[in-house]
Structures are given as structure tokens and as C-alpha cells.
Design goal:
Elements: E1 2-7, H1 14-29, E2 33-40, E3 43-45, H2 50-55, E4 58-62, E5 78-81, H3 83-88, H4 90-103
Parallel strand pairs: 1-2, 1-4, 4-5
Antiparallel strand pairs: 2-3
């Protein structure tokens, strides 16, 4: 499974990076490949490429603030989560994704 995520929060500081780390750890615990782009106060870091998008099975986007360049994910399966949920409930988010994919 190849997972991409973009994290961003209204202030663009702590929660952006805490969510990125939590999602990355939770995805790796499942044995999934993961790349997380952050859109924080210092701009876009670890930017997702169109090649990354082409290979991705699922895209996770935080929904607390608009994500820049979201149009690059057109046609992909997108899961939207609150940035606080990404920080506090990343393992449960991965479990829900896994269960959904098992049903598909």
C-alpha cells in the first residue's frame, strides 16, 4: 500500500508537523509506504510529486485549512481528517482505511 498525506493547520506550526509524524509512524506500523508533505508556516516541505500521486493508493488530507495544489489528487481516493485527529488518532485512521480497503 502506498499512502500520501498532506498536513496543514491554521497556524502552520506545531500541529502540522505533529500530524505528519503521527501519520507517518502509524502507516509504517502497518508496513505501508508513506510520504507526508507539510504545508506549514515556512511553506511546503517534502513536496509530493506527480509520480508519487500516480503510485498512491490513498491520499490523506487534513481539513482544517485549505490544502495548496489539491487539484493534483483528482481521481484519487481521498480521506479527509482533522489535524487534531491526525495527531491523536493516527493508528485508528489507518485501521479505518485498512478496513475500508478490505471491503472494496
Amino acid at each position: 500500500m502506498k499512502l500520501l498525506a498532506i498536513t496543514s493547520c491554521p497556524s502552520g506550526v506545531a500541529h502540522t508537523y505533529m500530524a505528519a509524524e503521527a501519520l507517518e509512524i502509524a502507516a509504517k506500523a502497518k508496513g505501508w509506504d508513506v510520504k507526508v508533505e507539510t504545508q506549514g508556516s515556512i511553506g511546503i516541505e517534502n513536496e509530493i510529486t506527480m509520480s508519487d500521486v500516480a503510485d498512491a493508493d490513498i491520499i490523506i488530507l487534513t481539513k482544517d485549512i485549505a490544502i495548496k495544489n489539491e487539484e493534483r489528487f483528482a481521481g484519487k481516493k481521498i480521506v479527509r481528517v482533522g489535524v487534531a485527529d491526525a495527531v491523536k488518532k493516527a493508528p485508528q485512521i489507518m485501521d479505518k482505511i485498512e478496513a475500508h480497503l478490505a471491503q472494496a
